[in-house]
Task: structure prediction
Amino acid sequence: MSAVPLVEHFAHGLDAPICLTWELTYACNLACRHCLSSSGRRDPAELSTAEAKAVIDELERMQVFYVNIGGGEPTIRPDFWELVDHATAHHVGVKFSTNGVRITPDVAASLAASARGYGGVPQSGYVDVQISLDGATAEVNDAVRGTGSFATAVQAMENLAAAGFVGFKLSVVCTRHNLPQVEAFKAMADRYGAQLRLTRLRPSGRGADVWDELHPTAAQQRELYDWLLAHGEGVLTGDSFFHLAGYGESLPGLNLCGAGRVVCLIDPVGDVYACPFAIHDAFRAGNVRGPGGFAAVWRESELFRSLRGPQSGGACAACSAYDACRGGCMAAKFFTGLPLDGPDPECVMGHGERQLAKVEPGSAPRPSLDHSRGVPITLQRRRPERACDEHPLTAAAMVSG
Amino acid sequence: MSVLEKAWALAPQVSVRSEPFGALLYHFGTRRLSFLKDRRLLAVVEGLGEAPTARQACLAAGVEPGELRAYERALARLAETDMVRERAG
Result:
């Protein structure tokens, strides 16, 4: 059998993504301080229902196995469930991330019913639910995700558990403030029959503004690595800590940067980016509305071709850990102002920290897009000038009735 | 009885996508991804459902008798992860 390591094939790109992230809307009822897509207001150029369905049809033809749907808060799109049903009916699995705002007892019951299958027939499509929570207590969570967001997420988990939806994911972005709670997160997931999913904080979107304050310390990062190794495949990570392979043993997963090679991002207006953490012009490969649709972007974009070509290890090439960590996360380097062919800002050898000290404050690239609401959400008394100026929950409620 | 002497088929919730290096297998029930590292193994897996035994599926796909052990191990691993299932021969 083939002598070439599989990871080399992946580094050269697949015919289609294994999975991709699809932010369905920039609209969000929350304003998390670390939001990697700088979400808040709906973009008026958002893909229509028909356009979104056409994308799903294309993903089916390309045999993309599943999509990670996010946002914004995807469930406040009025056609959200229609799109989910369309995907599962077309053999595209759905994992969606939500802050829980729409996971009512009724919605939980209907999710549980479809998870049990229809008449016992196995489905080649499914819906996984990921509830986002960034603190095991309201105090820690709400400081990042906003007042009341802990209660909303807990209510959603109560509803899912009560409806018998087993194995939903409790999804946590690891920060300096919540890593001391990792055992509490695990206990919480166990209590609800859920699975814990820990992912890496990226300096993307508004995350760039809170990175210095929130990213884990070097000591916390080491503890996390040991904790993840001890828990193996029982705790999901979305392959997000591959830079920690520099410590020695790899964590479960592909352990490579899949950007433009095995994964990518479609944003709410159809722009295709190399990865979910790289919403910036420098990483935009094209738009699904262009000729040839998503497949043409995936197969032919200059950016993706260059990512699939030989990569220079740069300053990292001489490091003993380079074969394991491959220089870490491209987006983390980019948005902290580090060169792409150098160490990750959280390099386990400490090379990133030394490099960061040399970056001139304010010189790191800023996100190209910002859908943040400038002011805290308040109930509006006057009629909004455009639908997207209104609080997104209200707009969605009007349409879905 | 060895893996090679039994009859197998792809599990019903498994999707197969061919790639230049071989193929990707995705199980929609377990959400597990597997890789077939060469095209002949893909041909074996695709032929399993029609062949009376795995051995015959291998031989039909051009696997040499001296290579059968490697394919036997690969199939055993796919059976462990429910990518292929035993069927009544």
About this structure: Chain A touches chain B through 20 residues (CB under 8 Å). Chain A has a mean pLDDT of 90. The radius of gyration of chain A is 20 Å.
